[in-house]
Amino acid sequence: MKIDLSFNDKVALMRIEGILNSENAHILQEKLSEVLASDATFLELDLFDCRNISSTGIGKLLLFYKDFIGKGGEIEVVRSSNNIYELFSMLKLNQLFTVNLG
Amino acid sequence: MKRSAARILVVDDSPSIVTSLSKILELNGFRVDSAFNGSDALRKIHRHNYDLVICDIEMPGISGLDFLERVRREYERDLDVILMTGFLEQDYFLQAIRLGASDFIRKPVESEHIIHAIQTILEKKRSRTEFANLFSLMDNAQLNIVIDPRKFSQFGISKVFNVFFKQNLKLSQDLCNELLTCVDEMVYNAFIHGTLELTPQQRRYEHDQLQKLIEEKLQEQAIAAKRIRFSFSVNQLDNSISISVEDDGNGFDYLSWLQRVAQEPKLNLDDNGRGLSMLYHLSDRLDFDNNGRKVQITRKLAPQTVSEL
Question: pTM of the predicted model, to two decimals?
Answer without folding.
Answer: 0.69
